[in-house]
Structures are given as C-alpha cells and as structure tokens.
Amino acid sequence: MPSLVIKDPALGTPNGLIYDARHKRLVVVCRESGKILAVNLRNKNFYPLMSKKFKGVDGIDFDHEGNLLVADHKAGTVYRVRGYSKIEVLRKNMIAPADISFVRATNKFSSPLSRGISSSHCR
Fold this sequence. Notes:
This protein has about 120 residues and is mainly β. It has strands spanning about 15-20, 25-30, 35-40, 45-50, 55-60, 70, 75-80, 85-90, 100-105, 110-115, 115-120.
C-alpha cells in the first residue's frame, strides 16, 4: 500500500485531511496555524489553498456539491467553503467541534463536541 510522509515545520500542526479526487491532491487543515493546505502527492510540495486563516481548524470533509466543510475547534463554528474562496457559517456557538463527517443520504454533517455529538442539516 502506498504511503506518504512529509516532515516539515512549515506544515504547522496538520490535523484533518481529505483526498480531493477532482484535483488529485490531499487537503490538510492545520490546527494551530489555521491554514488549509493542498499537498501535491507526486512531489510532496504543499501550499495554502486560501488566504483566510481560521482560529483552530480540526476536521474537514466535502459536502454533496464538492464544497469543503471545516470544523473550527477554537471558534466553535462549522464553515462551508465554496470554490476554496467563499466562506459561509453553517453552524456557530458549538462547544469545540472537532472532526466532521458529511452524510450524503441525509444532507447532514456530524461533529463530535467536547460534550456530545452534533448533527445538522447543510442548507
């Protein structure tokens, strides 16, 4: 089975990741730096996907339209990022959302919280 190891302090603290099949790259969220990065799987180069920095990104997934869903642990917010540029708040005032999972059959996302689990519809 193929594997990829990248050790570079510029990555910060990578936490959530997802494979972007459309662009054939890995998308990584870095908790402490708040960056969302793209990783080229062939040459291991990485670069920011957007200039926006979040407070403490933790989890990442794609919705049914291919938009990113991002859980920001420190901000207590789940965002939708359309086209890697337009940011929308899907849900706020959450208690430390962590990882995130989108369920296409129900059009909902779920995220573990510090005190339970949250499930919400994607509008």
